[in-house]
Structures are given as C-alpha cells and as structure tokens.
Amino acid sequence: MSDNDNDIDTDVWRVAAAATAPANRPEAEAGVRLAYRAAGLREPELIVWADSPRAALGLLLDADGPWGTQARGRSVREAVRSAPWAAERDRLQGRLGPRGWGQRWNATGGRLWTNTERLTDRIRAGLLELAEDRAEEAEVRLLLLDAVLGQHDAAWLCAFDTGPGSPLHGMAEVARSAGWWWPYERLAVVCERPVELHRDEAGRLDRGDGPALGFRDGFALHAWRGMPVPAEFLDGLGSLTPERIRDEENAELRRVMLEHYGYDRYLSESAAEPVHRDETGVLWRIPLPDDEDVVMVEVVNSTPEPDGTSRTYWLRVPPDTRTAKQGVAWTFGLDEQAYVPLRQT
C-alpha cells in the first residue's frame, strides 16, 4: 500500500461527498460485504435499502418490526469502521511521524473536513428534531452512534490508501456508491444519497426557494447561509416588507430576512436617516427590537464604471461604529486614526 499523497485524488472524494445521483447499489452492497469480511465477520444475512437516514431510522426504531433489535443483532460498527480506521491511522502516523501526518491530513482530508462535518451535524440535528418525545429522541441518539456515514466519511477516507488490499477498501466502496449505512450482525441498512444539495461559496447549506438538502422520500433540511430555517419561512421571503421584518420576533430569522431583502432596500423603504457622513461615505443605523443595531456604511466607488456611473457599495460594520470613516477603517482591520488612504477605489 502506498502512503504517498500524490496517489490520492482528493477531487474524487470531493465529488463523492457531494454526490446526488442514485446509489450504485451493486457496488455499495459488495463494499458492505467486503467491510464485514475485512473485519473478520460473517457477511450480513440481508442488506436492506432506505430512501434516507430518516427512513433507515424508521426501520430500526420499529421494535416489533422485521428489523427490530433481536432480529438484526448487535451493532458491529466498532469492528467495521472504528477499529480499522484507528489501526490505519496509527500505522500511518507511525510511518510519517507527527509532522508528516499533519502535512498529509492538511493536503487531503483536511480540505473536506469542515464541509462534511458541518453537513453531518446538520443531518443529525434534523433527525433528532423529528423525534416525537424524549424517549424516542434518546433512541435516535443511540441509533445515530451506530451509523457509518458513507459518502460523508469522504474526508477521513481521503487521507488513507483505500485501494484493493486495504482494510478500508470495503468502506471506501460504500462511500463512493451510497449514503449513510447501519451495520449489524445479521442486517445492514444502507441509504440512498440525497437527490439535491445546495450550498453557498463557504460550503454551508443555503437555498432561498426550497430544500437545501433533500432526499427522495421527502426528508429535507432548509437553510439560509448555513442557518436552519423552517420551510414555511422561506415561502414568505418573496413577499417581505420592512414592517414584516421589524415584526419578526426571532432575531436570527430577522437577520435572514434583512439579507434576503437587501440592507440598502430596507434603508430606502423604511425612511431611515443617516447618522453620520464624511469624506469616506455615509453611516446608517437600523435599530431592531431585542437585537443589536444593524450598522452600514454607504460608500461610492471613486472609479467610474464603463458607462460613466459610479457604483454604490454597502459595508456591514460593528454596531458600536460612530463614524463612516471608522466603519471603513474597520473593514481594512485598522482604527480610524490609522486609516489614511492614499487613494480610494
């Protein structure tokens, strides 16, 4: 097995982590069986498919159903995932040393980790929100500990050799072919991938007109720039008014409304008054109930556009900003006294 970074194609794993095509069921099932054999276990007697993690939990929560605790046996996640991963990590760390391992992680899995971790945390939270009571929530938490994350394990799989002969090869085959899965002694439950995934430039779940993450059975997560929002909240973004924004009691949702509506538009339509102006621009303040003020600096680009017009920009600045120059200086990481531009652009 090779430990050379050049042998790892991070783009393949980046694509796998974000894939929304239907699962390749034959390859995923072959990967599941291989993962069991690599762990020294007998292959599962049955592999069952679910349309989403929610559907998988529905099967596993049904104590009297065909896949109840007695029927499926104990979880073998430790043997199938945790143990081989820990062994490969220790082997590679021993071979490369602490510095070499750090460099390898930064060049491979570290590039994917933030986005995949953020996504899996949000899916877990969404599944817990569906619990009908505290008892079911506790059951869901325990079942989530049994899950192998499939495509969302791409970040840590990316750091290792997962080719034929590797103890991680089976898990990697599932990760490149399907979504989350649950390994038990006699049963494995494997999930389809999501059918849609929408993220912003920072990799956060983000969509203003529908689910940011959606599965074929209707399980969906809604978010605006990473912040979870109710589905019905998004439906109302197209008919916002300054009054509706001011009346929103939830401060976080109010900020989403302002971002969607546009700070400049809100200032214009709410008859706001400037609180300071100087040679750098105009300072505006939007008082919001039960929340910190929104403070913006309006600046005009000194370089004309090709048509001769000058573009106006709005800069969000800290709520304690008192002058336009102080706000502009803050955007450059300077205090007001130190900000002496030779030329404004």
Description of the molecule:
- The chain has 345 residues and is of the alpha+beta class.
- It has helices at residues 10-18, 25-38, 53-61, 69-72, 77-107, 110-129, 134-145, 154-158, 169-175, 231-235, 242-247, 251-261, 263-269, 324-331, and strands spanning 46-50, 181-183, 187-191, 196-197, 213-214, 220-221, 223-224, 227-228, 274-278, 281-286, 294-300, 312-317.
- The strands form four sheets. A four-stranded antiparallel β-sheet has the order 9-10-11-12, with helices on both faces. Strands 1-3-2 form a three-stranded mixed β-sheet. A three-stranded antiparallel β-sheet has the order 4-5-6, covered by helices on one side.
- A hairpin with a 2-residue loop joins β9 and β10 (281-286).
- α6 (110-129) packs antiparallel against α7.
- The radius of gyration is 26 Å and the shape is elongated.
